[in-house]
Hints:
The chain is an alpha/beta fold. It is 37% helix and 21% strand.
Amino acid sequence: MQTMKNILTIAGSDSSGGAGIQADLKTFAAHGVFGMSVITAVTAQNTQGVFAVQDITADVIAKQIEAIFDDIPVAAVKIGMVSRMETIQIIAAKLRQYQAVNIVLDPVMVSTSGYHLLNPAAQAILAGELLPLAAVVTPNIPEAEVLTGLTINNLTDMEEAARRIYAMGPGNVLVKGGHLAVDPENSIDVLFDGVNFHYLSAQRIAAKKTHGTGCTLSAAIAANLGKGLNVPAAVTQAKEYVTVAIENALTIGKGARPTHHFYTLYKQAGMI
Ligand SMILES: Nc1ncnc2c1ncn2[C@@H]1O[C@H](COP(=O)(O)OP(=O)(O)O)[C@@H](O)[C@H]1O
Ligand SMILES: Cc1ncc(COP(=O)(O)O)c(N)n1
């Protein structure tokens, strides 16, 4: 009997385990869903930076997607690092072919460490091909600025950006406020469903740089949608999850700290 939902991440590999595919699969595991992956690129990365990227060919990306959808029901899909034009085009074509549902798009552009994970020339293709497929798109402030051409300094700007991105075709837009200290006390994300705005606020954690926060949040939204939650509930619970993961971020290297995906579970099990 099927007891778990199967959730797919289409993203890049982070060798240091803090972001990308590795963050997504840990997030899925923490949500009690069965995680699957289509790898778009392999990065040589650690807590201090990204040192090399090997893109996976469009043909092998297509084959990974086919291998999954031809065999396994997919309850939700998270899309992260898509690197270049050929990658975006094949993902969009295959997700349309299989009529994939509950797609969460994290429009990853530049890593926390400053490396371009999306070829800037492919930004418009990402917007044109993937945004219309997404049930939820989760830009951070710099990504929302690239997508809209706006400069975002406050909540009103975030709302305007959400409206403009919504007009590009996704079902819902979540503009994340991690990069914007509008309120130094809180990290506020703005969710727009085309009619109403919802504001998701969490106490801002003043800590050393964290990474993998956006990956963790979008993977948690996908897991929650796959489990049958509606968008506001999926996003609200994912925000609570990422806040705990950031609060308990781990010091594993000399640079940015990865989020702790299992803090609550380990605590409950008496492991920490
Ligand atoms: N210092 C912080 N304290 C609390 N929440 C944060 C902090 N930084 C980011 N977040 C939250 O983490 C999530 C990811 O946001 P953000 O860091 O902006 O995205 P990205 O990782 O894509 O740059 C959002 O829900 C955001 O509000
Ligand atoms: C493979 C991969 N995907 C996504 C990110 C973005 O994560 P962050 O912005 O936290 O560095 C990353 N660094 N690496």
